[in-house]
Design goal:
Layout: H1 3-22, H2 27-52, H3 60-73, H4 95-98, H5 100-123, H6 126-147
Helix pairs in contact: 2-3, 2-6, 3-5, 5-6
Length: 150
């Protein structure tokens, strides 16, 4: 598929999803939305992780594509932590809602690190990607350690 077609399809999909993120019919919908967003982030981080850890051969294009997706995906789940989403099928700890400013700061850090990872991946140098991947993974872990039940 031509890169511009991929970009157009990706942007169309994101544009279609944004209204859903802005308003959820029920708290359960918001919880499912954020869990789905996190699942996708985990999937693309896993693909990058396999490359940076040598479990699969390094592919510069695949790394750049996955990192680019992470930039967008890192923005999706955080509007879905609204009123009533602390109950039900969620692994979020109660502290998340009590420390919303800290949580939002961690979300912003993740988004910043995902952008740095994308820039590094576009450069195609595995050493730079490894460093940026480590920072992004640490951002994920920091939030999970503080706010996710396991």
């Amino acid at each position: 598929m031509k890169p511009w077609i991929y970009s157009a399809l990706f942007c169309s999909g994101i544009a279609a999803a944004l209204p859903a993120a802005a308003q959820f019919a029920k708290p359960e919908d918001a919880i499912k939305y954020r869990q789905s967003s996190m699942f996708l982030m985990n999937s693309h981080m896993g693909r990058l992780g396999a490359m940076v850890n040598g479990r699969v051969p390094f592919d510069a294009k695949a790394a750049a594509d996955n990192a680019e997706l992470l930039v967008v995906l890192s923005k999706l789940p955080f509007d879905a932590y609204g009123p009533g989403t602390d109950q039900g099928d969620t692994r979020a700890k109660p502290e998340l809602w009590a420390e919303m400013d800290k949580f939002k700061a961690k979300a912003a850090k993740l988004q910043e690190d995902a952008l740095k990872l994308s820039f590094a991946a576009r450069g195609g140098h595995l050493v730079a990607i490894k460093a940026a991947y480590g920072e992004t993974a640490n951002s994920c872990k920091s939030c999970h350690d503080a706010y996710r039940k396991d």
